[in-house]
Amino acid sequence: MDLKRPDHPKFRMGADGTLWLNFGAHGQEVEVASISGDGRRILTVQQVGKARIWDSESGTLVGTVCPDSPLAGTTGSYPTAEPFKVFIESAALNKDGSLALLGLNDTTAGVFRVADGVRLAVLHPPGEKPAAEWGVIRAVAYSADFSLALVGFEGRRVGVWSEDGRHPVAFLAAPSGRRLVREPFVRDTLVSSVATSSDGKSLFVGCADMSFAIWDLDSKRLVLEALEHAEETLALFDDESGFGWATSAGSIWCCSGTSAPRKVLATSEQWSEVAFGKNALLARNLSGAVSHWTFSGIRSPQFEPSGELNSRWSHRATGLGFHGLERWHFPEGGDRLVVCSESRRVALATDRQIVSARFSPTGDTIGVGGWSHSVDLWSTQDGRLIKSFATSSHVGAFAFSPDGRLIAIGELGSGGGLYSRKVLVYEVESGELVHRLEGHQWQVSEVAFSPDSRQLASLGDEIIVWNLGKLGLLQRRVAFRAQGDRVSGAIRFFADGRLLALREGIAQVFHNGRLCQSFRVPVRFETPWCLSHDERFLNVAIHQGVVRTNLSSGETKAYQAPIARPETMPPVDLAQKAGIRTGCALWRTEQGLFLHQSDGPRGWVEPLALSRVAEVLLPTEAGAAIVNLNSPPSLVGTVTFEGKLRASRVLDHCVVMVNEKGRVFQSRRTSDP
Predict the structure, then answer these.
(1) 646 and 33 in contact (C-beta within 8 Å)?
(2) Which pLDDT score, from 0 to 100, does residue 298 have?
(3) SS3 state of residue 573
(4) Using CA of residue 264, residue 270, residue 276, residue 281, what is the dihedral sign?
(5) Which of 33, 294, 480, 596 could lock 658 by a disulfide, CB 3.0 to 4.6 Å apart?
(6) How many C-beta neighbours within 10 Å does residue 559 have?
(7) How many Å apart are CA 88 and CA 22, to the nearest integer?
(8) 237: which strand partners?
């Protein structure tokens, strides 16, 4: 894919080399669409600043709307290298298609008369100057009875106006405001789904980070706000006191025996990295501050940044770690690491961005890998750089042998693709390179020594076990090869020398190169996991929970926090049966059923709409499925459709769908198809 092509529909390369997503020349696809409540009119947006409204039966163009903005033609801090241009980000038609509710990229929405394109109202948060800055409106909709216009804004806020937008009804702001519940992505607190219940009494507001709120429209009272289900599971622990997990919103959940999980710590911080010690943990928040916490809630600040940290510092770096009970390390920004104990604090001032750090077995030294072609060995006693172990490319992983004699470094390489990457084994004391292990054709993301330090496993395009027992005599055993160009997962030796290998959806145990166990686990890319302290159980993270597998019997049990959480819609069995290829979150509440979809560049999310009788149209591999969401969800029937879904509506007498080419698909139906 050539990203420099100026006519590419999704990318634009600025003059300074900056890559902008979803900007540049468009018009190759319909990216936004809507269907009127009666199904007789269709709105499509192909040229990003122009909405066309069509008669669905005859295909006749009945109106064109071209919104304007005070920002048009200006330059400033917009995510484009060109003067501001009005983009239509979202759209909804009223019941008869005479009014178009459009969300724009200047933080406003508007109601437009279809007949002549006149703007009847500018919809924006009260007390704020409209169109003062760039910002997208991703969620606009009409209420179930089409009497109200609904607009979602940044900061978990929603505005409600009369059908024509001329009369404000309510402006509602969730108590959580702009609070983040996980590592920031793009527009986490932007409202991405908005709808009323079928009786029109309740308002559902779903955000890009998948948090949501429900409001009572009569009293303007917040009925329910749910954020905990949207938190990420950052790290797991399993020791004598129990097992559990840490979340991105600063909470710790713990299980003991077979008891239900309970929250033992709630800090209200936003964590990006967590490392567990004995009944304690280190946590780094999104601003870079580091704290030492006990499970009883005692906080000991370790580092508070005085200003903005280096913007290149990665939230995914692993700079936290413990050595027993007495010593731990943490980053002060991106290029400075501190080794701390109750009585001593030693700073290591590096000249590179730190990506990972690890204590040696004795704890007297620490290995540090960063954006460089080496792993550096530092003294934890005086902060002195002892030596560097060079590589020919960036470091993918490194590990010390349990006896402390060796350090193994797997090469990441430069960029993707299949070419030779090496595993380098150095003698720590002398700094001598003792093994140059060649065989991987993909980035080496994991290395692990056996307990006796005689074997080394490395993970790249395959898992290779190297015999280091006799210097100069190397034997190679392939544990398993990737299905494609690489293995995404993790490896670790047990105390008895068996090797645990995790890859997409599978855990396998090898002994002497032979597979002796295999079972399914919910492992995906970068899924947190850990073994129990006695190595009897494998723990794999799920959203606000953990799946625990007994490694002797293979018995698996899921432990999940007792919180509100959505269903995956459609269920896996129904999706497989009907070949359904898209979906969303489904909330079953006392106020009704609601669909929730996240954010994404225009045209990347296939929008789904719920009918008054709880039916939804879902694209399949060979058409579309009509699914009834009343519990349990069931397949009602199938209809003709092809392409990417841009809008849909289920009516009593027919179903209507629009694809990315602007093609309209209509299928007649009876009351019981």
Answers:
(1) yes
(2) 94
(3) helix
(4) negative
(5) 33
(6) 21
(7) 12
(8) 244
pLDDT in tens, 286-304: 888 999 999 889 999 999 9
pLDDT tens digits along 99-136: 999 999 999 999 999 999 999 999 999 999 999 999 99
| Inter-residue contact 65 to 101 (CB < 8 Å) | no
H or E element at residue 516: strand 514-520
In sequence order, the 6+-apart residues with CB closer than 8 A to the CB of 630 are 593, 614
Q: What's the sign of the alpha-carbon dihedral 631, 637, 639, 641?
A: positive
DSSP string, 213-281: EEEETTTTEEEEEE-GGGPPEEEEEEETTEEEEEETTSEEEEE-TTPPPEEEEE----EEEEEEETTEE
Residue with tokens 């100026």, as numbered in its chain: 6
Structure tokens at 10: 């999704």
Local structure of residue 106 (DSSP, 8 states): B
Residue 640 · residue 602 · CB < 8 Å = no
E-assigned strands of 56-167? 61-65, 88-93, 99-104, 109-113, 119-123, 140-142, 148-153, 157-162
What gap in Å lies between CA 524 and CA 223, rounded to an integer? 35
Rounded to two decimals, the pTM is 0.85
- φ, ψ of residue 228 to 5 degrees: the values are -60, -35
Number of neighbouring beta carbons within 10 Å of residue 644: 17
Which pair of tokens denotes residue 373? 């072609």
Q: Among all chains, which residue has been given the structure tokens 């009509």?
A: 626
469's CB contacts (< 8 A; 6+ apart) are: 454, 455
Residue 224: Cβ within 10 Å count: 16
| Distance in angstroms (rounded) separating the CA atoms of residues 199 and 192 | 22
Nearest Cα to Cα of residue 447 among 425, 427, 469, 432: 425
Q: Which two tokens stand for residue 654?
A: 């027919």
Helix (H, G, I), strand (E, B) or coil at 576: helix
Edge-to-edge strand order for the sheet containing 109-113?
A: 88-93, 99-104, 109-113, 119-123
The string of pLDDT tens digits covering residues 581-604 is 999 999 999 999 999 999 988 888
Region label for 643, one of left (φ > 0), alpha (ψ between -120 and 50) or beta (otherwise): left
C-alpha to C-alpha distance for 608 and 193, rounded to whole angstroms: 10
Using pLDDT thresholds of 50, 70 and 90, give the confidence band for residue 184: confident
Structure tokens at 625: 């499925």
3 state SS for 382-398: CCCEEEEEECCCCEEEE
**Whose CA is closest to 24, among 70, 102, 87, 109?**
87
In contact, 467 and 457? CB cutoff 8 Å: no
Rg (CA), the chain: 28
Collapse the DSSP code of 341 into the 3-class scheme (helix H, G, I; strand E, B; otherwise coil) and give the result.
Answer: strand
Compute CA distances 144 → 2, 199, 203, whole Å.
Answer: 44, 7, 10
Edge-to-edge strands, sheet with 233-239: 233-239, 242-247, 251-255, 262-266
CA quadruple 517, 518, 522, 524: dihedral sign? positive
Q: Which residues make Cβ contacts (< 8 Å) with residue 421, sequence separation at least 6?
A: 393, 396, 410, 411, 412, 413, 440, 441, 442, 443, 444, 460
Inter-residue contact 101 to 94 (CB < 8 Å) = yes
